[in-house]
Every structure is written in structure tokens, then in C-alpha cells.
Design a protein that fits this description.
This protein is of the alpha+beta class. The protein has 2 helices and 2 strands. The chain has one domain (3-59). Strands 1-2 form a two-stranded antiparallel ribbon. The relative contact order is 0.14. The model is unreliable at 4-11 (pLDDT under 50). Residues 1-10 have a biased composition (Basic and acidic residues). Residues 1-24 are annotated as: Disordered.
Amino acid sequence: MSEEMSDRRATGAPEPSPDGGPPFAECVLCREPTEYPESYKGITLCPVCEWREAERTACSG
């Protein structure tokens, strides 16, 4: 992780989106940017955490 990214996380500043679009919400588990806008209501997970959650619930029977 670059120093600039760690500084943003420490201060709580939103991550700029790579394509200049709206800022993205943080993952509720790992705090990485998600594919959801900040205005999204509900639990937001990054693609990695979404995948892990799907694996966990699929195996729980």
C-alpha cells in the first residue's frame, strides 16, 4: 500500500475513484473501496469480501 493511501485511511479521507466518478463506499469488513457509491444503503462489501462471504454461506449448509 502506498504512503498516500495509508495517509488517506488514517485521516478518513475518501478514496478518489480511478475514473473520476463518484467516491465509493468502504467495505464494512476490510475498509477497501467497493463497487458501490457512498450513497448506497445497506452493507457494502468489496469484491474479495463478497466472494468470501458467498463461500462461507454456501458451505454452511
